[in-house]
Amino acid sequence: MNLRNIGIVYRKELREALRDRRTLISSLLVPLLLFPLLTAGIGAAISALVGEAKKEVPTVMILGGEDSPGILAELRGSDKIRVVPTTQNWKDEVINKEIRAAIEIPAGFQEGIAHQRFATLLIHNYEGDMKSALATDNVQKSLEKYRDRIVHDNLAAKNLPETAFKPFEIKEHNVAPPEKVGGAAFGGVIGYMVILLCLTGSMYPAMDLTAGEKERGTMETILSSPIARVDLVFGKFFLVLTTALVTAALSVTSMGVSFAVLGHLHAFDTAGADAAQLQLHIGIYTVLSIFIMVLPVAVLFSAGVMTVSLFAKSYKEAQSYVSPLMFIVIIPAVAAMLPIDLTAKLALVPILNASLLCKELVTGTYHWNFIAIIFFSTCVYAAAALFLAVKMFQREDVLFRS
Q1: Which pLDDT belongs to residue 38?
Q2: Helix, strand, coil share of the chain (percent; to 5)
Q3: Do residues 94 and 125 lie in contact, with contact meaning Cβ atoms separated by under 8 Å?
Q4: First to last CA, the chain
Q5: Could you tell me how far CA 122 lies from the centroid of its own chain?
Q6: Is the separation of the CB atoms in 276 and 182 below 8 Å?
Q7: Angle of helix 368-393 relative to helix 352-362, nearest 10 degrees?
Q8: Distance of CA 290 to CAs 30, 187, 301, 323, Å?
Q9: pTM of the complete model
């Protein structure tokens, strides 16, 4: 292996890659613009839509309750809901989102609770619809207020304090700092996006340097040059690796800047736990840690995509071969957004281990034993993929496949 020849091939391919619009878009523009759009743009839009939905007074319908004027007066007097006249097709109106919920009051409700008989109120809603869920929450608050008043009157009639019904209170107290709360909320998404962008950053140059060369008829010219086949492979490989690492580095940097700007601008008007989740600070130490752990993943992607693309006769055919890799990568990468904890067994699963580790690193948690296992195992997978790429470049039936 001649480093000088590898450098010559690398510089040649780099000049051509910088002239390729697709490579520049996938490696530079996408990672730089994607995170700001996702965090500030889409996030702010979602926050605005949720805020508008919360301000809206939902329409609800009352089913029954003619013999229970007390609860009817409570619901109709609430400023959180708007009661509309009852109709026979109330279920269709809920499904068609003409009303947000329907409250079913059983017959004899008020008389039953006066004699301390247990009763059940049923709220019919549209599960999965946000506005229906908000309406259900408003109805529940109104009913709870009415229930608490009944309990208070019953206790007062018997000269009992309210603590007789509610002897203690339960409160939640978060002991994790806001940075860890935010990391736990966004860590899985960050790991998923970094890995996905690392793959897309390697795809276009890898396809262009293999199938693209075949389609343009320049593969034979390159192979006839006085450069060893191994040097040629490594020169092309390092160019693909460079684009993958640049994409990963820009995505992590853009992500950190986006959250920092978002925190200063207070783009989200939230409180409590939601506000804590937005306090995500990604320092230079975290960025470097993620970048180092993504390095062998980038080698794996670069070598793997080059090997697969080499079997294609044209750039379009290479796209059809590489597309299934997206699903192979997305499935384990998206698993990091699920409540899965990193274990010794999962540390050996490629892609999933790096995605789970990115989530841990964003929260500021460093399990050095898992880090060592993940880094070493991913390096082994990457070395195997690179070895396979070299072997494929030495096979004439693959290079000149017709």
Answers
A1: 65
A2: 70, 5, 25
A3: yes
A4: 29
A5: 35
A6: yes
A7: 140
A8: 19, 11, 16, 26
A9: 0.67
Helix axes 178-209, 352-362, angle to 10 degrees: 140
**Which helix or strand (DSSP H or E) is residue 112 part of?**
helix 109-114
User: How many other β-carbons are positioned within 10 Å of the β-carbon of residue 249?
Assistant: 20
Of how many residues is the chain composed? 402
Give the phi and the psi of residue 351 in degrees, each rounded to 5: 70, -55
For 152, the token pair is 């208070």
60: helix, strand or coil: strand
Residues 232, 328: contact at Cβ < 8 Å? no
Q: Would you list the DSSP string of 307-367?
A: HHHHT-SSHHHHHHHHHHHHHHHHHHHHGGGSS----TTGGGSTTHHHHHHHHHHHTT---
| Domain ranges for the chain | 3-40+178-399, 53-164
275-294 pLDDT, tens digit per residue, is: 444 555 666 777 788 888 88
Predicted confidence (pLDDT) at residue 399 exceeds the cutoff of 90: no
Tens-place pLDDT, residues 189-247: 777 878 888 888 888 888 888 888 887 777 777 777 777 778 888 888 888 888 888 88
pLDDT bin (cut points 50, 70, 90) of residue 263 is low
Residue pointed to by tokens 């600070």: 281
φ, ψ dihedrals at 63, nearest 5°: -105, 115
Dihedral of alpha carbons 47, 49, 55, 58, sign? negative
15-63, pLDDT tens digit by residue?
A: 777 776 766 676 666 666 766 666 666 666 777 777 777 888 899 999 9
C-alpha to C-alpha distance for 212 and 201, rounded to whole angstroms: 16
The answer to whether 347 and 374 are in contact (CB under 8 A) is yes
Candidates 127, 136, 233, 193; CA nearest to 330 is: 193
The token duo for 366 is 């460093």
Q: How confident is the model at residue 271 (pLDDT cuts 50, 70, 90)?
A: very low
Place of tokens 């006769």: 313
Beta-carbon count within 10 A of 241 CB: 25
User: According to CATH, what is the number of the domain 53-164?
Assistant: 3.40.1710.10
C-alpha closest to that of 23 among 331, 177, 234, 244: 244
The residue assigned the tokens 């019919």 is: 124
